[in-house]
């Protein structure tokens, strides 16, 4: 009686019979056999190795996931499915290439099954071995023969490697993958990445959660240290970029905590900070809501301090306008092209501005240490008009809770009423005015940007309920009214 692996070999051989690889015209079955061999250097898990044999059956033959599950079990079917890309019926495959690859990469980053990551590594390494062989003979001319695009293939394999690094950087297969990428696309990675590297591993078991943001959660590690644990889909380059921006911002005078090390926290990356007895400003507001106006003024002083810094356009900080334009393209443009153009015109009319802005400015990202505020979460530090920063605050403290106040209450840790009082105090202090007309003018400008962001958020969530539709329609109506009313977003 055949075991699982032997049966997989027989089944895959029959299913791929007569098919050849586009790399060199060799029998197709040699590729899944090579993938299985690579997997056997990393694991003795027969389900994972069998999935390596079967991984192309669904995409390249008449075989189905249902049949694989019936023959080889649920996990093998799930492993095979992990490499399957979304289909876009009726659309040209070349036109959907980027979307398909981004979707599959997102699934890879989210997966908690090490077998999925091993399968991806083995498959991509087998492909790169073939590409390297052709590249060594033909050089850049190979892309014309393969009808490929060097830049987008470079982007894809670089992102695959970064998604696999934390889990598999100590395997020979990963080191070989890096060497092939650097051979075809020189200097993609530091050559040290292809050598042995061990991240310090830390555990957050029993650690107190003291802050929460879009990119990850912050835990109190001990009396002196906190650790920001990044979400599953954040790569090493994302963490490295944030710490680099933090250092540059600190040099320019931004009151920020500096990370002194990147660590591994299970399957995620973490950044360690020295913050002695520090708590978030949100925690202070939650404990002392009667002092919320005082804390709003403190937040305004931090904002003014950051916004007083002018940076050179050649500095490391990107323009913030690109983020706002992406909100419009990813939301309003799908709903109403006319309104999207109006929004783009208003944003485009904002002056080229080298004012430094934080980009994710809220009280969960401000720690109080010995009475002094310190900013964290510096991955969105950029240059642009302060209206972008004010719209972010309006979004976090007002707009997010319009339909469900618990969203803000869970995020910030205090009531929606306190949240509104906080923003009102912040804005009055930041603008140094109690003039209601002036305050409402700035709120209108912030609201327009908030609505573009909310539409994109709802669309990206995939929600199709009547409540989701209602939110989009309300935001579109507000944008329509505001674009008729506003001549500029400057204040």
List keywords for this structure.
five-stranded antiparallel β-sheet; alpha+beta; Phosphorylase Kinase, domain 1; Aminoglycoside 3'-phosphotransferase, Chain: A, domain 2
Give a structural overview:
- By secondary structure, this protein is α+β, with helices and mostly antiparallel strands.
- It has three domains: 4-194, Hypothetical protein af1432; 208-274, 2-Layer Sandwich (Phosphorylase Kinase, domain 1); 279-485, Aminoglycoside 3'-phosphotransferase, Chain: A, domain 2, CATH 3.90.1200.
- Helices cover 56% and strands 9% of the residues.
- It is built from 21 helices and ten strands.
- It has helices at residues 4-15, 30-40, 46-54, 57-60, 65-72, 74-81, 97-110, 114-138, 142-145, 150-168, 172-184, 236-252, 281-287, 292-307, 321-335, 337-348, 386-397, 405-412, 416-431, 436-461, 466-485, and strands spanning 208-212, 216-220, 225-230, 259-265, 268-274, 279-280, 356-357, 366-369, 372-375, 382-383.
- The chain has a five-stranded antiparallel sheet with strand order 1-2-3-5-4, covered by helices on one side. Strands 6-8-9 form a three-stranded antiparallel sheet.
- A hairpin with a 2-residue loop joins β8 and β9 (372-375).
- α5 (65-72) packs antiparallel against α6 (74-81) and α17 runs antiparallel to α19 (416-431).
- The longest helix is centred in the last third of the chain and has 26 residues, at 436-461.
- The radius of gyration is 26 Å and the shape is globular.
- The N and C termini lie far apart (78 Å).
- The model has no long low-confidence stretch (mean pLDDT 89).
């Amino acid at each position: 009686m055949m075991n699982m692996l032997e049966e997989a070999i027989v089944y895959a051989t029959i299913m791929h019979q007569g098919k050849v690889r586009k790399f060199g015209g060799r029998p197709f079955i040699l590729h899944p056999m090579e993938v299985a061999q690579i997997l056997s250097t990393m694991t003795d898990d027969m389900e994972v190795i069998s999935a390596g044999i079967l991984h192309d059956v669904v995409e390249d033959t008449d075989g189905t996931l249902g049949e694989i599950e019936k023959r080889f079990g649920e996990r093998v079917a799930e492993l095979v499915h992990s490499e399957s890309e979304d289909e876009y019926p009726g659309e040209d495959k070349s036109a959907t290439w980027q979307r398909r690859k981004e979707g599959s990469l997102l699934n890879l980053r989210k997966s908690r099954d090490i077998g999925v990551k091993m399968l991806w590594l083995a498959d991509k390494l087998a492909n790169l071995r073939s590409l390297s062989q052709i590249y060594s003979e033909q050089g850049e001319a190979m892309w014309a023969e393969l009808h490929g695009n060097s830049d987008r293939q470079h982007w894809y394999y670089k992102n695959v490697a970064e998604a696999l690094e934390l889990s598999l950087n100590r395997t020979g297969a990963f080191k070989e993958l890096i060497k092939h990428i650097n051979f075809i696309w020189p200097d993609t990675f530091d050559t040290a990445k292809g050598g042995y590297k061990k991240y310090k591993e830390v555990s957050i078991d029993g650690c107190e959660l003291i802050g929460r943001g879009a990119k990850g959660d912050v835990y109190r590690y001990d009396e002196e240290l906190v650790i920001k644990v990044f979400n599953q889909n954040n790569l090493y380059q994302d963490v490295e970029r944030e710490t680099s921006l933090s250092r540059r911002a600190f040099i320019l005078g931004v009151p920020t905590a500096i990370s002194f090390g990147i660590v591994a926290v299970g399957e995620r990356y973490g950044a360690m900070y020295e913050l002695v007895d520090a708590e978030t400003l949100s925690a202070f507001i939650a404990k002392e809501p009667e002092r919320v106006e005082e804390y709003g003024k403190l937040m305004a002083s931090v904002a003014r301090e950051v916004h007083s810094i002018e940076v050179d356009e050649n500095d490391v900080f990107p323009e913030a306008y690109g983020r706002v334009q992406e909100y419009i393209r990813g939301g309003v443009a799908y709903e109403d092209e006319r309104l999207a153009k109006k929004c783009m015109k208003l944003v485009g009319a904002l002056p080229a501005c080298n004012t430094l802005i934080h980009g994710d400015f809220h009280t969960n990202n401000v720690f109080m240490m010995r009475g002094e505020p310190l900013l964290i979460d510096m991955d969105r530090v950029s240059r642009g008009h302060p209206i972008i920063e004010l719209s972010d605050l309006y979004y976090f403290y007002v707009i997010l809770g319009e339909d469900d106040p618990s969203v803000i209450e869970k995020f910030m840790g205090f009531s929606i009423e306190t949240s509104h009082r906080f923003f009102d105090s912040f804005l009055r202090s930041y603008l140094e005015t109690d003039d209601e007309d002036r305050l409402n003018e700035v709120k209108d400008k912030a609201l327009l940007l908030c609505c573009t962001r909310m539409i994109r958020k709802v669309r990206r969530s995939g929600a199709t309920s009547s409540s989701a539709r209602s939110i989009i329609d309300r935001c579109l109506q507000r944008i329509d009214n505001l674009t008729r009313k506003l001549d500029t977003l400057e204040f």
